[in-house]
Amino acid sequence: MSKRSVRRIALIVLGFSVLVYLNNSSWTARPRAVRPWLLAHRGLAQTFHTEGLTNETCTARRIDPPEHPYLENTIPSMAAAFAAGADVVELDIQPTRDGWWAVFHDWTLDCRTDGQGVTREHTLAELKALDIGYGYTADNGKTYPFRGKGIGLLPTLPEVLARFPERAFLIHIKSNDPAEGRLLARYLKTLPPPRRARLAVYGGDQPIAALQRGLPELRVMSRASLIRSLLSYMALGWTGYVPAACRDTEIHLPVKFAHWLWGWPNRFLERMAAANTRVIVVAGSGEFSEGFDTPESLKQLPPDYWGGIWTNRIDCIAPLFRTGKRGMAGGRSASR
Q: Where does the record place the GP-PDE domain (predicted)?
């Protein structure tokens, strides 16, 4: 091959690389003078240390010394989260034996209540009679600061949506049973379309797939849909094209992997917004609902980030955006 041919190929490759770079450079995106929107995980809840945490750990028995009186997944905790500045509240649902949706996190009752057994094997009346603050302790069982204070606080999903008719929620299905996706679709279909538009659902692959078949316009996410979305975008996003797997959906993006996405952050966020997809960044690698819970943790985000932020401490994070102190956090924006 002649030197002229080599030079021509090199110029073509260089030109192509420059075009790809410019097409995916965050700094070329139109700036947005808006703050990020904040998602409060389980409302305003008690926090706990995560050392040695597994799927079987009873988190109520390892809480930090309480700084507020609220218990997760209750209407008072959601009201407090919205009052603190949450734009969206995440909640967990379990089906009851008599066909209701109870708002409760645990598969069993033994950890945080005075009941026993599998949650979904109980009726709604049985669940509402429980003390859902019974098992919380910050000192290895020496004291139980919420014992006796959680009786009757367990709500149903319809009660939550009726109490906050104009608010946005992220609903978590806590199983991989496709029947639960179909059951939830039947309930959500009874809601007016404007109300459904303020809801999104995530959970196991099978119930989410069943829910999406029943309500294709609803934003949903599962592990399978997240992987499909990100891999398809990694393959094609450099062109500016947003694949079908990334459209009209929900992406919970671990910040650890965000910088590998074409156009991160602003160009990527622009593309997802145009595709009617909601992006929520979670801390670290996304294990065990890691959140941005301290001012220091926000330094993982670019200073001009304007998507969603997952937090377990809405009371600590929201004031930073009201006062403008968020500007101290974050490094330089970067594209892939």
A: 56-321
